[in-house]
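Caspase recruitment domain-containing protein 19
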Amino acid sequence: MPDQSYCDRLRQDIYFLTSNGRLSEHLVDKIILQLNRVYPQILTNKEAEKFRNPKTSLHIRLSDLISHLQKKGDKHCQEFYRALQINAEQLYNDLPSRKIMSPMFFLACFSVAAGLAFFMYCWNSDPKVIGGAKKILGFSPIIIGRHVRNICMVYMEDTSRKN
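Predicted structure tokens:
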């Protein structure tokens, strides 16, 4: 997520935001008014009127607004996200671009690191390699409990003393 620009995030979220029932007409109007009144450099009065036109369907207005903001640049897209967060925090938290770094992602990364540490430990009995495995397992309290970590470390220390 840190490497993604706000325009890229908006491209990723556009289908979620424009799907039926996600954003009400009232909520879209509040976002447009905030972008117009609080940040007049983001949306001019004329642009705000265009995107608030009740004769045009909500889906088209929202799609046009998002496309317009993407053309204007990253700062404009960032302000859209800020307005969305202020006016619809739950919807903002449910955006697909905010769900990339889920707890499962961190659990998967930890599993890979722990697997490599155990592989290094079992494959090579060199004390330098065992020390490297200890360093990797030393970060395990982030994910697994302190008791499990202590048991693993005691076991590794006992086996390294025997060798």
